[in-house]
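Troubleshooting: if your tokenizer reports a length mismatch, compare against these two reference records.
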Amino acid sequence: MISVKETKTEVVTLCGKKWMGTQTKSLQDCCLIVPTYQRPLEVETLLLTLLSYASSERCSVPAEVVVVDSSADDGVERVITEVALNRLPFDLTYIRCSPGLTRQRNIGADVSTRELVFFLDDDAIPYRDYFSTVRSIFLNDSERKIGAIGGCVVNEWNRPLNWRWRVRLALGIIPRIEPMRYLHCGTSNPRAQLKPYSGTRQVDILSGCAMTFRREVLAVERFSEFFDGYCQGEDMEMGLRVGRTWKVVCSGDAKVTHNQAPG
């Protein structure tokens, strides 16, 4: 049984399991949170990808992985148990809770223990150097001004816009601003307009499928559970709130593919 803080004041106990890893070739100050719902195949693919990266010579993975599952069946739990039969390079924690993406992210953050907290969707696959790239940006931030870093979703680059967005831009209904920036009138532009780049750029909006925070940021700012159930815009809201106090950036070198699963 694992105790977590469901709200800022209420502490609850949830069912969970934990397997200790060898901690070889793992980034000791990094943890990964993966919320999931009814997607055992995607979770298995992500975890096996991490295992394959850890077995290579020039790749490191977080020292701690937390999967927060709100599925109605035990498909994800069976997959986690099978993966845990491998020689794990990281500590693996599995938690069951009620549905709600932002709730699941908060629970994962409460349970995890490392300084740098990575979040990936269950259907996102990071590149080999994803974790080390993001970690380096934080470590090189000597003034500790950066509070959150978004990854670049490479299979969204230059994706054709749907007809609604083409009409909005053609008529000037939506101002042409940089992707991942936000105007106070309440508008932003799709990430599909983002062009490949290297280095970091300051942003207002995070990519919910791939984002990382300092632990001290999450100690103050929690994901809003106003977005209970189906979430749309929860990553924007969190990014804007964190950006009031911290610098929020996106790294063009921290790449992931987001293979959006049906449903």
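Reference record two:
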Amino acid sequence: MGNTFQYLVVGVTVSLGLSFLVAYHLDRVRFGHALLRALYFVPHVTTGVALAWVWRWLYQPVPTGVFNGLLVWAGFPQQPFLRSTEQALYAVLAPAIWAGLGFQIVVFLAGLKAIPQEYYEAAAIDGAGAWRSLVNVTLPLLRPTIVFLVVVSSIAFLRIFDYVYGMTLGQGGPLDSTKPLVLKIYETAFGHFQMGYATAQTVVLFVILLAISLLQLRLLRSS
């Protein structure tokens, strides 16, 4: 459960921050806008298991791993990444965040396009700069979009499985440092054949997902 909520908190926070930053600047790009949007969306439609194996290769020590190769080239020591109990969870979370950015960017772009330009013109007449317009116009009007993405992303990170399974070979290691609740349910049901215990774990996950969905409805009604 601790790993699962760590995936949730870090994943949602980082992914929404990055996706909004990219979408905010991409919305102002006029040349090649459609191509850039498509390139950002490509990882989202790629199979998670394939991405997991590619990133697992990138994390390998030199001379195989690209990331460690870049660190050595820049004069830094190699990092254990997936072989470290402190770094493994974030190493697994990185491709999951990267793959989900495309969907979030597209939704943010749709929300930004839906904001009438009259609000920005009125803010400019009042002397508001880019920062004031962002804080007082863009973010408040994007609240339904943000709430929607928070809930959808929360459900996705609470159900994270394929990246953990592919990058740790189904073990959730090292020392269970990357094992989420869904992988625990899979292991309990199909590894130890304790179907009753796995069902109880599934009910716990369902209750958490239901609570987040109900929170979404309440926030959307108040926005």
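Descriptive notes for reference record two:
- DSSP finds eleven helices and no strands in the chain.
- The longest helix spans residues 195-222.
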